[in-house]
Amino acid sequence: MRKRTRTKFTPEQKIKMRAFAEKAGWKINGCDEKSVREFCNEVGIERGVLKVWMHNNKYSLLNGKIREIEHGLCLNTHSNDGDGSSSS
């Protein structure tokens, strides 16, 4: 028996899938089935492929987003420290 070939996504598909997953709360089962089918048809993937992609990417993409937010907050809290400017 041969292994299934690895699915390769275009950058556009990845962007659309991430947006859909974020809107859906990273859960495909709670979504309206019609909207899932329409999305899969639009992007050109099967429902099962979307489900596996969401499961595989949920934590890595969420962790990246959290790091971006934390990094942004760190930059904002320290942006004027020690730069010699006065607030008076």
Automatic annotation (TrEMBL):
GO function term, MF aspect, one: zinc ion binding
Location(s) in or outside the cell: Nucleus
Keyword Cytoplasm: no
Entry keywords, A to Z: DNA-binding, Homeobox, Metal-binding, Nucleus, Transcription, Transcription regulation, Zinc, Zinc-finger
Residue intervals passing through the bilayer: none
Keyword Protein transport (UniProt): no
Protein name as it appears in the record: (thale cress) hypothetical protein
Organism: Arabidopsis thaliana (Mouse-ear cress)
Organism taxonomic ancestry: Eukaryota, Viridiplantae, Streptophyta, Embryophyta, Tracheophyta
